[in-house]
Amino acid sequence: MQVVTSIEELRSIIKWWRGEGHSIGLVPTMGYLHEGHKSLIVKAVSENDRVVVSDFVNPTQFGANEDLSSYPRDMERDAAVCEEAGADVVFHPEPEEMYFEDNCTFVDMDGLTKGLCGKSRPTHFRGVCTVVSKLFHIVTPDRAYFGQKDAQQLAVIRRMVRDLNFGISIVGCPIVREEDGLAMSSRNTYLSPKERKAALILHKSLSAAEEMAKAGERDAGKLISAIVKSIKTEPLARIDYVELVDAETLEPVGSIKAPILAAIAVYIGKTRLIDNFSFSPEA
Ligand code: AMP
Which residues are catalytic? Predict the structure, then answer.
């Protein structure tokens, strides 16, 4: 496995692979890899001849007061995880390699990016769409792998690929959790032991609501209230949002008639965590 830092070098590897007739999978990440990331890489390896993992803390998707400078980084460990999962290349560029100093071109999206995380992170998805577009142009993958953990991001990327005719298959992968249910996230490292325990409220509140939906509850308001009530039992938790939205349009729904996404963002101390579940009334 190779760690590549330059776009030019990566392009020449891709060209060579294409000459050999290889299919290519891409797994975009911001590094500090855990089992959730690894599950995406393993799936990509099983479905493609060659796999590129990008490992880049993308500055354009962070707001001015967010955690860009403190975001955890450990390239050596990341490379070991990628190698073990069977990746062929880790693409680890410096920000200067990815963005010209006077970069003024961005990929922006209306609609889907305005609600949920877009409300409190208004420039986030512009950064995500821009960097993912750039990676798609550099790697030209057949398939790209994204986690359901970031459900809004997955819906946004699917829509961008459709709207801009990227011709790349987007593969969604299930949320990988710690044994006690907490969704794995690089940001979990910010949590103190007390906060780590408190963070369980995200999965606990969502699981209870999912059971209600499975038992036949179709009223979105009732499910939201149940989630809010449960989160409020945890003193260290502060709700950013709790929403039930259509799984494709991400528009809020009043009742469950089609596949939905129940998504939450909750501050545990200073750390903002997200989690969700998908539910289909026919299932
Ligand atoms: P990140 O490095 O946090 O930007 O995540 C890179 C990719 O890994 C995204 O597609 C995430 O949705 C995915 N991912 C992160 N955490 C998990 C998880 N716990 N389970 C599944 N996928 C995940």
Answer: 37
- Of the candidates 252, 269, 268, which has an alpha carbon nearest to the alpha carbon of residue 260? 252
Check if 121 has its Cβ closer than 6 Å to any atom of ligand 1.
no
Alpha-carbon distance of 26 to 41, in angstroms, equals 8
Residue 196: partners with Cβ closer than 8 Å, 6 or more residues away: 182, 188
Which one-letter amino acid corresponds to residue 47? E
Q: How confident is the model at residue 283 (pLDDT cuts 50, 70, 90)?
A: low
The residue whose CA is least distant from atom 14 of ligand 1 is: 147
Residues 6+ apart with CB under 8 A from 85: 38, 41, 42, 45
19 alpha carbon – ligand 1 mean position (Å): 31
β-sheet bridge partners, residue 278: 261
Question: Amino acid identity, residue 89?
Answer: V
DSSP 8-state symbol, 175: P
Q: Do the beta carbons of residue 112 and residue 156 sit within 8 Å?
A: yes
Threshold 0.85, pTM exceeds: yes
CA distance 118 to 116: 5
Please write the tens of the pLDDT for every residue from 229-247. 999 999 999 999 999 999 9
Between CA 92 and CA 75 the distance in angstroms is 8
Query: Mean pLDDT throughout 109-121?
Result: 96
* Continuous H helices in 105-199: 117-120, 124-139, 151-163, 193-198
Q: Which residues of 115-145 are buried (b: 16+ CB within 10 A; e: fewer)?
A: bbbbeebebbbbbbbbbbbbbbebbbbbbbb
Of 29, 35, 37, 68, best ligand 1 pocket probe by most atoms within 8 Å of the beta carbon? 37
* 146 CA to centre of ligand 1 in angstroms: 7
In the chain, the amino acid numbered 247 is A
- Residue type at position 216: G
Given a cut of 70, whether residue 12 has pLDDT beyond it is yes
